[in-house]
Every structure is written in structure tokens, then in C-alpha cells.
Amino acid sequence: MSEAKEQSAYARAGVDIDAATDAVDRMKSHIKKTLTPGVLTGVGSFGGMFALSALGTLQDPVLVSSIDGVGTKLKIAFATNRHDTIGRDLVNHCINDILVQGARPLFFLDYFGTGKLQPHVAEAVVKGLTDGCQAAGCALIGGETAEMPGLYGDGEYDLAGSIVGIVERAKIVDGSQVAPGDVLIGLASDGLHTNGYSLARQALLHDGQLPLETPIPELGGETLADVLLAPHRCYAPAVLSYLETNRVHAMAHITGGGFLDNIPRVLPTGVGVHIDRSAWTVPPIFGLIEKLGGVSNYEMHRVFNMGIGYVLVVPADDADTAIAYFENAGEKAVKLGVAIEGDGVELG
């Protein structure tokens, strides 16, 4: 009779190297699908390498980077045991951040930390990451999977990632050309994206106020879980295509801080914006949060995207062309408002 395999001292301490190996093996097939021609290393290298020469001739290339997390949207994934979209949230959020300056993504790196590694959960998360990377032509070039017993609650994990993109210096979108009279074009979001979930959970789920998996009439019969887990939309395909032949003076990703904090970040001194709140229909999830949470409408616009996930500032005579372009590209686009003399955001 064969002798039973003895548990290692490290496993008795809470770290299972065999589970880590299993998790990496599960991830490999997904990661390989994202490797673009510039990637020089395979899965498991100590450092990821990317050859800029694979991009062709660049006159004056500028690298653009960003790093972010998913926030407490993770709590919804834990509660529903749905882990296959949360990685896409992270990738798309980071892509949109560097897109603001006109950059296209080159490669992405992730960090996944948990108390007890469950290979099937790690695989689902990484598949979400690779789905997002593949859709945007971005390589998942490296990452870290860390098992740290005692640091996270049972069944919980943290997820963060960093991205590097590239843009020609002459094509950087920096907001310096924005002037009064320019028009703001808003592109619709797919729900909350990855911001405001602490407030949303307090308003909707406090003391079991609303069920996660039961259809809710105010949400058109959708479940709260489906609405809250809708993936963060990626605007890169449509926006990068538009930038090739059209003028854009500034762009803003509407994340934490909503309209009130994000749009001013890309405006020059002496220029503000007027937002016409009648220009679009706010999705019902935001009204439900406002009502049940007792949140002021002003604060709603400072915390949430309110149904607009991305904003472009274009010359007034290009506004109709921009609307038509983005509609044809599959985005819901509206004339959100105008640039004005002053500062900050005026909600009308």
C-alpha cells in the first residue's frame, strides 16, 4: 500500500504551493491568447519584455501608464460567487484612463492576492483579464498571484493592475486647446462601472434591504446582481478610431469623483463646463441608489457616472459628426453640454 503524501510545513502554515501551480497552469491557456507580436517573454518569466520595434516606425513615442483596482465591487462578486467579469472591469478601467491622453494599450500586469488560493476562482478572474486584454489588443504580460493566510476573509481576494500604453507626442490629448463654445460629447456607461460601490452597497444592500438575485421591477426586471456586476465598458476601439481623423480637444473618464471632479482635471485655467442634465436618461439603478440611500442629486453626480462613462470635448462644428460616428461605432452618444468661461462644472 502506497504511503499517503505528507502535507508540507508551508501548507500547514496556510500556503499551498500545489494550488498555486494548479492556478498558474489553468491561467496559461488564457494568457497566451493575449500575447501580441511585441511580447518577447512567455508565461512565468521573472519580468515581461515588450519590443517597441514591433509597433513600426514611431516619430516621438511617449509611454503612458496607470494603475488601479476594482474597489468594493469585489464584494458583489464574493456574494454572488461570480468571478468571470471582475478582471474585465479592471482592464477596461485602466485602458480608459490612459485613453484620455490618446494612448493605445500595449501591455497589462495584474496582482491577485487572497487568503486561501482557489485555483478555479483565480482562473475565472484571469479569464476576465484576458478577455478584456484580447478585445483591446493588449498583452497580459505578467502578474502576481499571492496566497497570504490571515490577511483576507474566507473566499475573498484583492485585485489590482497596471497598464502601459503609447501615443505619439504630437497626438497627445492634453486639454490645452479647450475653449468656451466647445461641445461635450458623452458616451453611455454600462451601469456603475467600478466606482461608488461602497455607497451603492450601503444604500441597496444594508441589512438585506434588497435581494441580489431576485428580479426587481424598478430595474426593468433585471436582478441587482446582474446590474451591479455589469462590466466596466471599454471605449478604446471607438475613440482611438475617431482620433485618427478627427479633432478632440480633451477627454475625461468618468470614474470616482463623477462629473464634478473628473471633467475639470482636463480643462485649462479659466474654462469650465455646463452640463445639461436633460440631455440623457439616467439609468434606473442610480435613481434607486439616490432614493433608498437618501443621497442628494449633487452628491450622486460627484460619486457616480450617472450613465455617462466617458466624455470628449470637441469643436462645436464637429459635434454632429462625432455623435454620428460614435453611434455608428456602437456607442450611445449625446451632446452633454458646452465649455464656458469660468471654472468647474455647472449642472443645469
Automatic annotation (TrEMBL):
<keyword id="KW-0067">ATP-binding</keyword>
<dbReference type="GO" id="GO:0004641">
    <property type="term" value="F:phosphoribosylformylglycinamidine cyclo-ligase activity"/>
</dbReference>
<dbReference type="InterPro" id="IPR010918">
    <property type="entry name" value="PurM-like_C_dom"/>
</dbReference>
<dbReference type="GO" id="GO:0006189">
    <property type="term" value="P:'de novo' IMP biosynthetic process"/>
</dbReference>
<dbReference type="GO" id="GO:0046084">
    <property type="term" value="P:adenine biosynthetic process"/>
</dbReference>
<dbReference type="GO" id="GO:0004637">
    <property type="term" value="F:phosphoribosylamine-glycine ligase activity"/>
</dbReference>
<keyword id="KW-0658">Purine biosynthesis</keyword>
<dbReference type="GO" id="GO:0005524">
    <property type="term" value="F:ATP binding"/>
</dbReference>
<dbReference type="Pfam" id="PF00586">
    <property type="entry name" value="AIRS"/>
</dbReference>
<dbReference type="GO" id="GO:0005829">
    <property type="term" value="C:cytosol"/>
</dbReference>
<dbReference type="Pfam" id="PF02769">
    <property type="entry name" value="AIRS_C"/>
</dbReference>
<keyword id="KW-0436">Ligase</keyword>
<keyword id="KW-0963">Cytoplasm</keyword>
<dbReference type="InterPro" id="IPR004733">
    <property type="entry name" value="PurM_cligase"/>
</dbReference>
<keyword id="KW-0547">Nucleotide-binding</keyword>
<dbReference type="InterPro" id="IPR036676">
    <property type="entry name" value="PurM-like_C_sf"/>
</dbReference>
<protein>
    <recommendedName>
        <fullName>Phosphoribosylformylglycinamidine cyclo-ligase</fullName>
        <ecNumber>6.3.3.1</ecNumber>
    </recommendedName>
</protein>
<dbReference type="InterPro" id="IPR036921">
    <property type="entry name" value="PurM-like_N_sf"/>
</dbReference>
<comment type="pathway">
    <text>Purine metabolism; IMP biosynthesis via de novo pathway; 5-amino-1-(5-phospho-D-ribosyl)imidazole from N(2)-formyl-N(1)-(5-phospho-D-ribosyl)glycinamide: step 2/2.</text>
</comment>
<dbReference type="InterPro" id="IPR016188">
    <property type="entry name" value="PurM-like_N"/>
</dbReference>
<comment type="similarity">
    <text>Belongs to the AIR synthase family.</text>
</comment>
